[in-house]
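Lab notebook: predicted structure, single chain.

Context: the supervisor wants predicted structures on file for every construct in the current expression panel, including those that have not yet been purified. This is the next one on the list. No modifications to the sequence; it matches the entry in the shared construct table.
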Amino acid sequence: MADISIDASVDVGDHSRLSLWAHTQTDQAEQHRRIMRLLSGEVLSREMSAAEIATELTAGGFPIKEEEVEARCAQLRVWGNVIPSVRSYRVATVAEWRKAKARYQASKLGARVAVQIDGIVTATDGAKEVARELMGVIAEQLDRVLAEITGPGAPDALASAVTTTFNAHREFRDSLRDFNNYLSGILSRYDIVGDEYLALKATLMRYVDMLGTDVRQHAPRIANLLTQLEPHFLEIIATLATWQTLTADDTELAQGRTEADWVWLAEWYAEGGVTSGPAAFRTATELALGQLLVNAKRILNDAGSGLSRRDDLLRLAKVLSTASDQEGHRLFANAFGVYSWRHLLLGDDENIQPSSNTSWWNAPNVDVPVTLRERGDRSARGRTAAVRDATMETELAYRAALAKMEERKLAAQELITAGALDNGVRLSVGAQELLQGQLTLIDQDTNTAENPESGFRLTREPISGTSTILFEEGKFTAYGYRLVITQVEGAAREEVAG
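Prediction complete. Output recorded below exactly as produced.
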């Protein structure tokens, strides 16, 4: 498979081919993958019918019906993973002809995707060994290319050396990239302690040093050979063209058959290039060793925010796995401080503080002390604050309560004066609120609701027709009854005594 360098700033490729991976995201993904694994084959692509696929999968311990295989193959054909067979068969009946006709084989890209998926699924999360021995192979093959192109070399020998060079480089580059990605992932963790840290240290100290030695030994030699070959790039391509047998415009050429391939290879091994592989490897190695020292300091230091809590979290997870739901919720809340929402009773001393039940939406913002925010410590810090004089606040609260009582008394008197609330009687906002609150207290058996505090009784009397009460915000219409307000005797005697 050709390895093509892609500029990330340019949108290239046929995006419709992304459907080749669609079969991995369906509910029947396992059936799709097993079918593609059969059709791709171990050596070459196979041509099989739905019945043959079902028989072989069932014999391998994965039972599946022929109808299911037929449906899956039909969908894989829509996505482009499989193609129908074009061979003709000698048959005796129509049924045999239909079965023979429905045969499938993996498409070119479908087989390639199937191999890639199996490789990714079966790959381990550990480090991948770098094929560092291939750098010497690359240097030797470039020597052969230089000898063949400057001497009376044959096209087949030149093609062999070029193909070996690019295949070896692709394998070396891919394994080196996987190793660097593994290091980046493992070094980004802050929970590496104990044996895992020792294993990582051994990997960096020994293996990375060997890789660095090989890169320093072979990379300059390879870069020098590519510099000598640069004037012969077009000649190499022209010589390989005489050996090339596929000449169609859409032919996928092997690497080393275009000038862009050679320019890319030269830039990869160039010492000061932007895409220099050796330079990028040295930078990644320096970052990895630096991060290793940071982890060592964190492990040795038993204080500060960088302390690893891996052991504590594992012990907590073990306890949570055996605890009941109620105990687990309580333990989780205690461990991470996840308590129910409540107001902290902090804020400006000059204003009235909200209660502990006040919603955070309505309460004013407060500055939470650092000790409480970071460590949950509620103990007082610094000098003792002066005792606040609440005389003015008490007086204001007393006056507000008196004003509220006076408004309620006037509203009750307005309702008593109105008496029967019908024929479009108009009530103020205060009387409306008092009446609406009393309506919710009406006894369904007696049709009355008494308010001893305000000194009136609300009665619901049945009538024929409707009654209407006018409010500031609209009107209230009652069908089949009217509301009547009467003063209770206790309130009347209290008013006379006053």
